[in-house]
Structure formats: structure tokens, C-alpha cells
Amino acid sequence: MKFMRRLALTVVITLSLGGYAWASSPTEQLRAYTDQVTKALENPTLTAAARLAAVRTVAGQAFDVTETAKRALELHWQQRTSAERGEFVQLFRDLERGSCPESASTAASRSST
Q: Which of 1, 8, 20, 95 has its CA 20 to 30 A from that of 61?
């Protein structure tokens, strides 16, 4: 139950800060996202799962997975059916999520030294 409360609080705080970031320059947006991730990784009260959830929330705000997947395929995107596009976006999202735990744990270990 504590985990769910912390996760919900993390998501609410992250989402509330996201509105501010969009009103600023790209550099300030990136700095705000980086600060949010750093705070989540350095928060000793969060479990590893809560940290991961917070980092994924910030990544979801910072990166438009559908647009990134579309750009990755470039000209081939138009040749794909709607179903193929959806499948590719999901695979792309899974790839991003798969790299997140390793990146988050690496960053957490660096910040603790």
C-alpha cells in the first residue's frame, strides 16, 4: 500500500512539473526532466520499483515514442499499414523501457558514490 501511495505521489508531482517545463526553452525543458530523474534516483525513501516508475514517467513526458518511432522508419513509415505501425511503436516502446532499468541503476550507483 505504501508503494502505491508513493508511486501515485511521484506521478502527480512529475505531471504537475511537466506543465511548467513546456513553457520554457528546450534547454530548460531538458534540465527540468534531468532534475526530475535525478531527484527520483537519489530519493532514499523510494523503492527501486518506484524509482523505475518515476524515471519511466519522466521519459514518457520527455519523449514522444510514436513520433520517434515514425522518424526512425522515415520513408518506410508511409509504406506500413496501421497495424504494422502500431506494432512497431509498441516494439520501440518496449525497447525504450528495456533500456531504462539498466540506465537507471547505473545512474543510481554513480550518484551514491
A: 1
Query: How far, in Å, CA of 35 to CA of 111, rounded?
Result: 13
Query: What's the CA angle centered on 17, arms 38 and 43, to 5 degrees?
Result: 30
For the record, the C-alpha cell of 4 comes out as: 502505491
How many domains in the chain? 1
The pLDDT value given to residue 21: 46
Q: What nine digits make up the cell of 46?
A: 523510494
Distance CA 81, CA 89 (A): 12
**Local structure of residue 44 (DSSP, 8 states):** T
What is the C-alpha to C-alpha distance for residues 96 and 104, in angstroms, rounded to an integer? 12
Domain of 105, in residue numbers: 2-111
